[in-house]
Amino acid sequence: MEKGLTYSEAIEKAGNKLCRFPLKSVRGVPLMEPIAQKWDSVWAFCPDPSDLLIATYPKAGTTWTQEIVDLLLHNGDAEACKRAPTVVRIPFLEIYSPPPIPSGLDLLNAMSPPRVIKTHLPIQLVPEGFWENKCKVIYVARNAKDNMVSYYHFDRMNMTQPEPGPWEGYIHKFMKGELGWGSWYDHVKGYWEERERRNILYLFYEDMKENPRREVERIMRYLDLSLSDDVIERIVELTSFKVMKDNPMANYTFIPKPVFDHSISPFMRKGEVGDWVNYFSPTQLQLFDEDYERQMKTVNIPFRTKI
């Protein structure tokens, strides 16, 4: 980032270099073109063993988990966690944008370990250094139907992702894995199958909604932390959807309108389980359920579409 520029100002300055970037295949996974062009640098990234990776399919509770982790590491200090926007506090490993917007690697290289790092990469594209150095990894999975609805609205308002088109066509793109970061099915299965061998804490969005305190405590134990009950309660409150939606350091309102158009759909839209029932027609639901059964038949991941 250019000296003296905030992240928002860097985006403003990049101006007309930003557009709806096409997807390009990297080892069979569609990624936004700027990421694909810089892939060798991403793949070469070598984390410190003390670094923590938060991995998700897009719109599966990433920002929520980032905020929980940051608050846990800062003993529930809300002001400390407003020191910078989410993207600066917890850099997005693979993201590349036109200068002067800093890439994820630029931000990471300017930080000293231990760092918390975000990725949407499927497990086979995570740089090998994370496994070689036995970094801790938190993975969050969200049921396919709600995840798809949330991603659809995000693609509508994010002016750097491909045009989503109409909902009825988006369902087919999702089922075929023709969206940024590829197949939801391959993504959730890949981390699930490796979770024990690679010491991955595998969380479910629905569990986090149902009992946030329990899941905050799970994350705390995984990070080898021990916080008092009142601090944990504070973290649960500070990471509630209502509080985060009003937190300018976490709600992505710091991204200017030419990139994230919140008038189309807010970044933090509903944060609910079961909103999918408002979108699927009976025909779409039957088609999707049959395809889901086929794609998930080799695993038994306990997803829930309502709580």
Order of helices and strands: HEEHHEHHHEHEHHHEHHHHH
Mean pLDDT: 94
**Residue windows where pLDDT falls under 50 for at least 5 positions:** none
Report Rg.
18 Å
Structural key phrases:
single chain; Rossmann fold; 307 residues; four-stranded parallel sheet; alpha/beta; two-stranded antiparallel sheet; 15 helices
Description:
This is Sulfotransferase. One of its GO terms (cellular component) is cytoplasm. This protein has 307 residues and is of the alpha/beta class. The protein has one domain (34-295): Rossmann fold, CATH 3.40.50. It is built from 15 helices and 6 strands. The chain has helices at 7-14, 33-37, 39-43, 62-73, 86-89, 104-109, 129-132, 144-157, 167-176, 184-194, 205-210, 212-222, 229-238, 241-245, 282-295; strands at residues 23-26, 29-32, 52-56, 116-119, 136-141, 200-204. The chain has a 4-stranded parallel beta sheet with strand order 4-3-5-6, with helices on both faces. The longest helix is centred in the middle third of the chain and has 14 residues, at 144-157.
Brief description of this entry?
The chain has 307 residues and is of the alpha/beta class.
Give the SSE map.
Blueprint: H1 7-14, E1 23-26, E2 29-32, H2 33-37, H3 39-43, E3 52-56, H4 62-73, H5 86-89, H6 104-109, E4 116-119, H7 129-132, E5 136-141, H8 144-157, H9 167-176, H10 184-194, E6 200-204, H11 205-210, H12 212-222, H13 229-238, H14 241-245, H15 282-295
Parallel strand pairs: 3-4, 3-5, 5-6
Antiparallel strand pairs: 1-2
Helix pairs in contact: 12-13
